[in-house]
Design brief:
Length: 196
């Protein structure tokens, strides 16, 4: 294959979730696309590095000092939902079930990956709780060991402040058969059951 095509394929393969076949498909699409479309794509990619930053309050993606959620006066300011990464906010927002604020940690405690408490924005969360009269912190962390460890650490810091701390329910995904659920997931689903 000629070098420019191979270079683009290799760069695309480096992106999460893109294998060789997908990278080739995108490369060949761009090769045959109108020049303006390719130029607009290149401009959009360049713009995210210059225009998008982290919100000064919650560390979500933002254009200015505050993200749209923190700047919205209609949001419930007494509740903070803690997530590991900014893109997890989008998933929660799509549910239209949560109207509070967020706090992005920037990852999860993971000794195997050399990520400790000091590498995350946990101290910033505690400062926000103290300054902003927060009444509840909701942990929406990934349901894996790193999320459990991070959640337990945050809970140990939040509980002494007299702030309610909760965790999103974990259990069986909609559309999944019980026979494929592991014991830990099934146990969490039973503990997190709701009355009908």
């Amino acid at each position: 294959m000629i070098p420019p095509l191979e270079e683009l394929i290799e760069r695309l393969k480096a992106l999460p979730g893109i294998g060789r076949k997908s990278a080739e498909r995108v490369t060949f699409y761009l090769l045959n696309a109108p020049s303006e479309e390719v130029a607009h794509l290149a401009e959009a990619i360049g713009r995210i590095k210059t225009a998008v930053r982290h919100c000064d309050r919650c560390y979500n993606f933002a254009i200015g000092e505050l993200c749209d959620i923190c700047a919205n006066p209609k949001r419930d300011r007494k509740t903070i939902c803690v997530v590991g990464q900014p893109w997890e906010i989008l998933k929660i927002e799509r549910t239209a079930e949560y109207r509070g604020l967020y706090h992005v940690l920037g990852g999860l405690i993971s000794p195997m990956d050399d990520v400790g408490v000091a590498d995350l924005r946990i101290s910033e969360l505690i400062e926000r709780i103290k300054k902003e009269a927060v009444e509840e912190v909701i942990l929406a962390l990934e349901p894996k060991l790193e999320g459990e460890i991070t959640g337990m650490h945050i809970a140990s810091l939040v509980k002494p402040l007299g702030v309610r701390i909760s965790q999103i329910a974990q259990g069986i995904p909609v559309g999944r058969d019980l026979e494929f659920a592991d014991e830990v997931t099934l146990g969490r689903a039973l503990r997190g059951r709701i009355e009908l």
